[in-house]
Structure formats: structure tokens, C-alpha cells
Amino acid sequence: MKNNTVTGYARVSKTKGMAQVALFAALIVLMAFTPFLGYIPLGFTRATIIHIPVIIGSLLLGPKKGAGLGFVFGLTSFINNTINPTVTSFVFTPFYSLGEYSGGVGSMIICFVPRILVGVIPFYVYRGVKKLQREEKASTAGLALAGISGALVNTLLVMNLIFVFFRDAYASANGVAASAVYGFILSVIGINGVPEAIVAGIITVLIGRVLLNKNVRAKLGV
Fold first, then answer.
1. Is the pLDDT of residue 25 over 80?
2. CB–CB of 205/59 below 8 Å?
3. Cβ pair 217, 147 in contact under 8 A
4. Distance between CA atoms of 210 and 222, rounded to whole angstroms?
5. Beta strand 39-41 with 46-48: parallel, antiparallel or unpaired?
6. DSSP per-residue string spanning 51-63
7. Triad 12, 17, 18: Cα angle to 5°
8. Band of the pLDDT at 44, cuts 50, 70, 90?
9. Are residues 120 and 96 in contact, defined by beta-carbon separation less than 8 angstroms?
10. Cα 54 to chain center, whole Å?
11. End-to-end Cα, the chain, rounded Å
12. What is the rounded distance in angstroms from the CA atom of residue 154 to the CA atom of residue 135?
């Protein structure tokens, strides 16, 4: 009887966990395919706020499920850049070409690896800050740094991997000399990545302080 009870609890817990991941995944997909909401086209790239539910999901559900949500984030980017491409979409999908330049294995690495890490790193940043502060309640500093770190992981890894895999092609697509392409990448990080990180930090604090409250977490079953 005891073993049956334990098995029953495990099944309920697994089902609940799947439902929680599905809820966040649905939010990511909704944002991704709502025009000008999840992905905002800027010509040379797309700004995004989709990393925010991935970060929140990581903090609530843990790094494994956060990584799964990051994969969903990457998948929406892959689909968007395949069916609705911009001039630089070849860096995110192997199924789009621009003249002589086309995507490849590097495109898949750029599209998925940084996004998966968005669902992992903020969890450990938050936990590390909270441990240093020795706080039991939600840490405002921890939430802010978790949000900022998640956004910067995405931007910094994506842009630097573009330089590693597609330096010449990316320069050509943006009308930039190959020798000046890293300066262009730094400008994208400054113009696009820094505001994204600030917004992510603020929203993560606002939402996280509510969702990470002990009573709220108990009601949500996390």
C-alpha cells in the first residue's frame, strides 16, 4: 500500500511538473508568434523579450525545466527565421540563404545553445546571490541579477557565436567591412542587448517577488 501511495504521488508530481512547463511553453509560443511582441524586427537583427518567461520559469521550476523552456525559445527562433526571414536569418537556420551565404551547423548552435543556457544560468545566479545574502525571502538583488544575466547570456553568446561562425557573411549582409564587423557586433550588443538586460532585470524583480513568495509557490505547487 505504501509503495502504491508513493507511486501515486510521483505520478501526480510528474503530471503537475509537465503542466507547469506546458504553461510557460505556451506563453513563449504565444509571444513568439504574435507580431511585434516576442520578436521585434530591427532590420539587422530581432530584439526579443521571450527570454523573460524562460528566466522566470527557471527560477520557479529549476534549471532542468528551465533548459527545456530555453529549447522552446530556440525552436521558436528557428521557425521564425525559417518561415519569416530577415537578411541575417541564415545565422539562426540552415534553411535560409543570402546569395552565396547560407546557414549550417553553426546556425543550430547559435539558435539553441544560448537559449537553453538562458533557462539554466539565472537559476544559479539567483541561488548564489541568495546564499551570499543568507535570505529566506525572495532576494530583489538576486532577481535583478538573474534577469540581467539571462538576457546577457542570450545576447553575448548569440552575437559572439555569430562572429565565430559567420563573420564574413554577417558583415556582408549588413554592409560592413569584415575588419569592422566585431565593432558592429559590439554596437548591436550596446543598442539591443543592454536595454534588453535592463528590462529583463526589472520585470524579473516585479514578477519574481510575487511568484517566489512562499505562499504563492505553495498554491502553484512549485
1. yes
2. no
3. no
4. 13
5. antiparallel
6. HHHHHHHHHHH-H
7. 100
8. low
9. no
10. 5
11. 26
12. 28
Secondary structure of residue 181 in the 3-state scheme: helix
Q: DSSP for 47-96, please give it.
A: EE-THHHHHHHHHHH-HHHHHHHHHHHHHHHHHHHHHS--TTGGGT-TT-
Residue with cell 558583415: 171
Is pTM beyond 0.85? Reply is: yes
- Cα distance between residue 26 and residue 22, in whole Å: 6
Cα separation, 57 vs 110, whole angstroms? 21
Classify domain 2-220 at the CATH class level.
Answer: mainly alpha
User: Is residue 41 helix, strand or coil?
Assistant: strand
Q: CA of 178: how far to CAs of 10, 102, 135, 166, in Å?
A: 55, 17, 49, 10
CA distances from 200 to 122, 130, 146 (A): 11, 19, 9
Cross-strand bridge partners of residue 46: 41
